[in-house]
Amino acid sequence: MQKGPYEKILIQQCATCRICCHGNVSEGVCGYNTIEMIINEEIPLDYIKKMVVIQVKYEKMDEAARKWWHFPKENILKDLTLPENGVYEFLAVPYAIDNCIFLSNKGCMFPKAKPFDCSMFPFYFLEGKFNWIDWCPLIESIKEDSKLYKYFYSKVLKSTNNYKKFSKKHQKQYYEKLKELKNKINFEIINF
Ligand code: SF4
Ligand code: SF4
Question: Whole-structure pTM over 0.90, yes or no?
Answer without folding.
Answer: yes
